[in-house]
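hey so u asked for the seq, here:
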Amino acid sequence: MTRTIVHLVRHGEVFNPKRILYGRMPGYHLSSRGESMAAATSRFFERRDVALLVASPLERAQETARPIAEVTGAVVETWPEILEADNKFEGLRTKGWRSQLLNPVRWRHMTNPCEPSWGESYEDILQRMLRSVHRARALADGREAVLVSHQLPIVTVQRFVQGKSLAHVSRECDLASVTSLVMQGDIVVDWSYNRPAKDI
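ran it, structure tokens below
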């Protein structure tokens, strides 16, 4: 049975001066630092046998995929299935003392953090991500595939392969990081986590 590696790449830093939860909103591009992160992460894929390169439709994912395309020669495909998680708080400031989540009108969406009640369920995110991982594995059979996605979708896959609950408080999925799934057929037999842009 052939060994295939599916890499899940989180996009680089986004230009977000208003510090809002942008989610699936259009118009959010990489910052200059994010572009440097994407370039650093692209070098992780130099001399790798990348047969497939896919990005979420959102600008930040597409922009992170471009330098990877340059070093691998792969053409960027777009798959909606690896899109950011849906979130009812999209467009709001959600951190700090000015957080709009302090307004009681929003509390009805925070009744079940294990689901979570404010957006797409962890299970739904996981299932669409796993479909994409298995599709990528089949298309890159015996080689390597790169999927450029977003933090929460990648974290759900990380937690699944570790046998952990999908509900969580902390995450290890830094900007422009690479989570690599080593697969024998449809089975994940090993995985690793790298931060090629950690010094940027």
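DSSP finds four helices and six strands in the chain. The chain has a mean pLDDT of 91.
lmk if thats what u needed
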